[in-house]
């Protein structure tokens, strides 16, 4: 919205700075952070008043349980992130198909996550919405997003290309009907996979949002480089016209994430819930596709991948040993893997800080792939 003020530079010259994507990205981050700090106390108060909190019992005992008890802490804090990002993007981004699809996915998955949290917090339904219903909504959202990208002239060609790290050209073009089906399946797994991965990571105060900030920061840089023809040409990566505006969304996500982390740091005053985790994973997943860096997300989001893999290994090993030996055995002390380290006696804050360090290392490694072609 405010970006259009640059059209009036003939009347007031300094307005031309609003044409600069880098400035609007910084302004988006600052606006989202300010908005998050502004609405945070009010939203947390309302969630407490409405008793929209966690209702599980901590299985630890003694003093340890008292220090880590999270029962009745307000959830649905993802609304704080969503409101901050949405307002900031509306102010500073120049709408195009990339921005609209990203915000559609983010808004729709926020609604799905909110319904899930509402059933758990208000209706006392521990399981929330069924896995089948959640999968149905995620499928429909991905299908709509892909249909728009395939049909729109700005994105129709680029979205069919598959780029992988370390290669100077696309390794595959999804052509024809079969290609579209394969593209949908891949995008679906990325949206759903990273939604669930962030959801699994969201088990300790500040862990998920801290790692999300580093991933969003990296993809903001990748969106900027993909949208800039000269930089993309220099780095030998795909130039995706118009995708630079996704950097504004990533900037807003970084700012909103920092504001949310203020309230989510140990001891947490609010949790993001499925309202936040499902939507953030889906947003990051679809942005990765739109800037032609889907497989790089496996590196950049390495902590999320490790969390998801630890659960898969734990469940798979338990089922295998039950068939082989008559009783299930655990590979980790507890899954997701951050709980494994808690069981070993690490304080929650140490686990979170060390996972942040790992997330930053993964982010730097992912950025390194831009140059190694």
What does this structure look like?
By secondary structure, the chain is mainly alpha-helical. It has one domain (22-299). The chain is built from 14 helices and two strands; from the N terminus they run H-H-H-H-H-E-E-H-H-H-H-H-H-H-H-H. The protein starts with 20 loop residues before the first helix and ends in a 5-residue tail after the last helix. Mean pLDDT is 89; it is low at 56-68.
Question: What key phrases describe this protein's structure?
Answer:
single chain; 373 residues; mainly alpha; two-stranded antiparallel sheet
Taking the alpha carbons of the first and last residues, their distance comes to 37 Å
Q: Order of SSEs, N→C?
A: HHHHHEEHHHHHHHHH
Number of domains: 1
What structural category characterises the helix and strand content?
A: mainly alpha
What is the overall pLDDT average?
A: 89
Question: Can you describe this structure in just a few lines?
Answer:
The protein has 373 residues and is mostly helical.
Q: Could you give the topology of this structure?
A:
Elements: H1 21-49, H2 62-68, H3 78-92, H4 97-121, H5 131-151, E1 161-162, E2 172-173, H6 176-201, H7 207-227, H8 229-235, H9 246-264, H10 273-290, H11 296-300, H12 302-325, H13 337-343, H14 348-368
Antiparallel strand pairs: 1-2
């Amino acid at each position: 919205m405010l970006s259009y003020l640059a059209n009036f530079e003939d009347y007031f010259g300094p307005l031309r700075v609003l044409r600069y994507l880098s400035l609007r990205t910084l302004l988006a981050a600052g606006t989202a952070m300010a908005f998050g700090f502004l609405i945070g106390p009010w939203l947390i108060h309302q969630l407490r008043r409405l008793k929209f909190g966690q209702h599980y019992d901590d299985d630890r005992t003694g003093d340890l349980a008292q220090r880590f008890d999270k029962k009745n802490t307000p959830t649905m804090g993802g609304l704080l992130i969503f409101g901050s990002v949405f307002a900031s993007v509306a102010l500073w981004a120049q709408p195009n198909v990339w921005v609209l699809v990203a915000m559609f996915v983010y808004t729709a998955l926020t609604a799905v996550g909110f319904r899930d949290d509402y059933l758990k917090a208000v209706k006392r339904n521990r399981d929330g919405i069924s896995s089948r219903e959640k999968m149905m909504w995620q499928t429909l959202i991905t299908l709509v997003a892909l249909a728009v990208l395939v049909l729109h002239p700005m994105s129709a060609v680029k979205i069919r290309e598959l780029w992988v790290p370390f290669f100077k050209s696309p390794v595959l073009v999804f052509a024809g009907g079969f290609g579209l089906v394969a593209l949908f399946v891949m995008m679906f797994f990325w949206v759903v996979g990273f939604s669930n991965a962030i959801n699994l990571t969201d088990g300790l105060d500040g862990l998920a949002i801290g790692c999300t900030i580093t991933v969003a920061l990296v993809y903001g840089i990748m969106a900027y480089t993909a949208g800039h023809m000269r930089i993309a040409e220099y780095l030998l990566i795909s130039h995706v016209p118009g995708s630079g505006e996704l950097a504004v969304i990533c900037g807003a996500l970084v700012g909103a994430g920092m504001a949310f982390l203020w309230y989510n740091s140990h001891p947490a005053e609010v949790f993001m819930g499925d309202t936040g985790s499902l939507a953030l994973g889906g947003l990051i997943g679809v942005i990765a596709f739109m800037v032609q860096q889907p497989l790089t997300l496996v590196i950049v989001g390495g902590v999320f991948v490790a969390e998801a893999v630890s659960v898969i290994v734990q469940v798979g090993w338990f089922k295998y040993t039950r068939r082989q030996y008559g009783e299930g055995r655990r590979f980790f002390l507890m899954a997701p893997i951050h709980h494994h380290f808690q069981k070993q006696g690490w304080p929650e804050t140490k686990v979170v800080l060390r996972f942040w360090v790992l997330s930053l290392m993964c982010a730097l490694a992912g950025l390194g792939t831009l140059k190694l072609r």
